[in-house]
Write a structure and sequence with these properties.
Layout: E1 8-13, H1 17-32, E2 36-37, E3 46-51, H2 56-71, E4 79-84, H3 85-97, E5 103-105, H4 113-121, E6 126-127, E7 148-152, E8 154-155, H5 166-170, E9 174-175, H6 178-187, E10 193-197, H7 214-221, E11 230-232, H8 242-250, E12 254-259, H9 267-272, H10 279-292, E13 297-304, H11 311-324, E14 328-333, H12 351-374, E15 380-389, E16 394-398, E17 410-413, E18 422-430, E19 435-439
Parallel strand pairs: 1-2, 1-3, 3-4, 4-5, 5-6, 7-10, 10-11, 11-12, 12-13, 13-14, 17-19
Antiparallel strand pairs: 8-9, 15-16, 15-18, 16-17, 18-19
The structure holds iron/sulfur cluster (SF4).
């Protein structure tokens, strides 16, 4: 038996915030075994790389990270463990292709980490993808700043968008039991902002409870005294119903913000993408949301350059943005992913054209976001302090209309500010993405 308590573990988490939650659970497993966790990779005896693989770019990043870690192998490094989406989907290719990796685990094999390591220390390379045990835990080692955390409420997806590999990697939609999620949220301790994530947050409970259950879950979650506010990401448009809108309106702990990935605005392209909804249904939904919650901030993501998309359809998407007046958006060039239905479509758009369309969409949205932010100049905005920005020599935080990492920030001066506390910041300017200001009592030296 190997004495793992003498080993130091490092972890590199690639990809999205959902993967980050999986990484945090893995770290908890390591800690429960009595092992030390280090954030200095050069000190790690066992390095876990939790990968993402749903886009070509993510796979490239994962492979470069693995190869890079192996090439710069410190004298301390004994084992490299690769987990998550990349081995889950591509183990056939990478087991022989990445001989520097000692252990491979898929998305539902994390609980077998130590068994796999035991085998590996006996001299074997280990592939437990699809053969290990699922890690079920309601505790995590947080890797976010301590005042906010993500809560992953489900895994997998049933939507089968024609450009997306996720259902093939992570399987059908599976909600996690509400009681377990409440316990997990409670175990996080004091959290100023809890951010709900899943491939499709709004579908929560349909598999497990036979009906939409997000509102019931939100009502229960917001009774927890350690959770000050809850933010919703990744809501599929046609799953946002009157009940959910009313809950966002009436529940003071729910941030008046919603992320609705729309992906396109034009009906013909949406159909090719196998997305439910239409330009008009999206505009109707936005109208309904704003009538119920006038201050609501709506963020979205869009893909341009989907096969056969014309310049006119991209221009129509620009017009949609002008009409929809979303708070903030991310735009992505379509990525042609093998093993997806869209891969086979004729009419692939050249790379340069896709990049140009992304720039065009960003330019339109930037003006809209700027107008939105300009409306706060001279006004006081409630800001959650995320810490100090040492480059700008001021505090940095976020208003209700900004989620961490994907939206703009508020850079502000204050005599004093504490991470995780809210401050009233008077906004003096913005650049169309970030805002700048100071607390009312700030005294410049
Ligand atoms: S909703 Fe579509 S894009 Fe999102 S994870 Fe599911 S299949 Fe992929």
């Amino acid at each position: 038996m190997i004495d793992f308590t003498s080993k130091k573990f490092g972890l590199i988490s690639l990809g999205c915030d959902k993967n980050r939650v999986d990484s945090e659970k893995l770290l908890q497993l390591v800690r429960d075994r009595g092992c030390e966790i280090t954030d200095d990779e050069s000190l790690a005896n066992i390095l876990i790389i939790n990968t993402c693989a749903f886009l070509n770019e993510a796979r490239k990043e994962a492979i470069e990270t693995i190869v890079g870690c192996a090439a710069e192998r410190s004298e301390n490094l004994e084992k490299i463990v690769v987990t998550g989406c990349l081995p889950q989907k591509y183990i056939g290719e990478i087991f022989d292709g990445l001989p520097e990796v000692d252990v491979f685990l898929g998305i539902d094999d994390y609980a077998s980490l130590f068994d796999a390591l035991e085998k590996s220390y006996r001299g074997d390379r280990v592939n437990l993808v699809g053969k290990g045990e699922e890690l079920i835990t309601d505790r995590r080692v947080l890797t976010t700043p301590c005042h906010y955390a993500y809560l992953k409420i489900a895994d997998g997806c049933n939507n089968f968008c024609t450009y997306c590999l996720i259902p093939k990697i992570r399987g059908r939609y599976r909600s996690y039991e509400m009681e377990k999620l409440l316990k997990e949220a409670e175990n996080l301790g004091e959290v100023s902002e809890l951010i709900l994530v899943a491939q499709d947050v709004s579908r929560y409970g349909t598999d497990l409870y036979g009906k939409k259950f997000l509102v019931t879950f939100l009502k229960n979650l917001t009774t927890l005294v350690n959770i000050s506010s809850v933010r919703l990401l990744y809501c599929y448009p046609d799953m946002i119903d009157d009940e959910l809108i009313a809950e966002i309106r009436d529940n003071p702990k729910i941030v008046k913000y919603i992320d609705i990935p729309l992906q396109h605005s034009e009906d013909r392209v949406l159909k090719l993408m196998n997305r439910r909804g239409s330009r008009q249904s999206y505009l109707d939904l936005l109208k309904k949301l704003r009538e119920a919650v006038p201050e609501i901030a709506v963020r979205s993501t869009f893909i341009t350059g989907f096969p056969t998309e014309t310049e006119e359809e991209c221009d129509a998407m620009c017009d949609f943005l002008r009409e929809a007046r979303l708070t903030n958006c991310g735009f992505f060039a379509y990525s042609r992913e093998p093993d997806t239905p869209a891969y086979k479509l004729a009419g692939q758009v050249p790379y340069g054209v896709k990049r140009r369309r992304v720039r065009k969409l960003y330019a339109v949205q930037r003006q809209i976001s700027k107008q939105f932010l300009d409306g706060f100049i001279g006004r006081s905005v409630r800001v959650l302090c995320d810490g100090i920005d040492y480059e700008r020599n001021c505090f940095v935080g976020r208003a209700y209309f900004s989620a961490p990492d994907i939206d703009g920030k508020v850079y502000f001066n204050a005599n004093e500010a504490v991470q995780g506390e809210w401050y009233d910041v008077i906004i003096t300017s913005d650049d169309g993405y970030d805002m700048f200001g100071a607390t009312g009592d700030f005294e410049d030296e």
